[in-house]
């Protein structure tokens, strides 16, 4: 699917469908985002040690950035003026990013998530948006501790992921 050097492309195997995929457009190109993208690595760059050919991987909303500005230096690439989004953006070589509708995708190693070999690809897609949306605040606010009591309001796309993560962290969950 996705990975590593701007010189290589990887076939897309699956993608998630999020509510935002059918709500408006953030680009001049008329297509849906499909930003929860998973696939298998077909080629890696010479400096890549994180994954190898055949690994299952995923990519969220960003595939590249300048890595040379203050935003990038502070791990805030999403705000980099030269960030390249997974969908509706333009790579440095002028080609368009088409999100999960792509036959293949190129992404910097920094934005690749490596999945375990025994994980079905389709199971990884929801982790790349809904999953990180709830995982990040649970970790950031110190709620990922065993024995914590956590209440999850709502059991939709985000709520059910929050319950799964909280239980995996050993929390007592009220849903």
Automatic annotation (TrEMBL):
EC number per UniProt: 1.1.1.195
Top-tier EC class: oxidoreductase
Keywords assigned: Metal-binding, Oxidoreductase, Zinc
Domain Alcohol dehydrogenase-like N-terminal: from-to ranges: 27-117
MF terms (GO), sorted A to Z: cinnamyl-alcohol dehydrogenase activity; metal ion binding
UniProt xrefs under InterPro entries: ADH-like_N, CAD-like, GroES-like_sf, NAD(P)-bd_dom_sf
Similarity comment: Belongs to the zinc-containing alcohol dehydrogenase family.
Protein name, UniProt field: Putative cinnamyl-alcohol dehydrogenase
Source species: Rosa chinensis
């Amino acid at each position: 699917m996705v990975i590593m050097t701007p010189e290589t492309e990887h076939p897309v195997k699956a993608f998630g469908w999020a509510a935002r995929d059918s709500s408006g457009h953030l680009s001049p190109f008329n297509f849906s985002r499909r930003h929860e993208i998973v696939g298998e690595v077909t080629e890696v760059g010479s400096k890549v040690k994180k994954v190898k050919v055949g690994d299952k991987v995923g990519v969220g909303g960003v595939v590249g950035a300048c890595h040379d500005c203050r935003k990038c230096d502070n791990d805030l690439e999403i705000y980099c003026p030269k960030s390249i989004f997974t969908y509706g953006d333009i790579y440095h070589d002028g080609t368009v990013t088409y999100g999960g509708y792509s036959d293949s995708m190129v992404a910097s190693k920094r934005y690749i998530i490596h999945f375990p070999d025994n994980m079905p690809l389709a199971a990884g897609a929801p982790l790349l948006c809904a999953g990180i949306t709830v995982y990040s605040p649970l970790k950031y606010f110190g709620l990922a501790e065993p024995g914590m009591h956590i209440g999850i309001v709502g059991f939709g796309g985000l709520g059910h992921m929050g319950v799964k993560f909280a239980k995996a962290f050993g929390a007592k969950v009220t849903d």
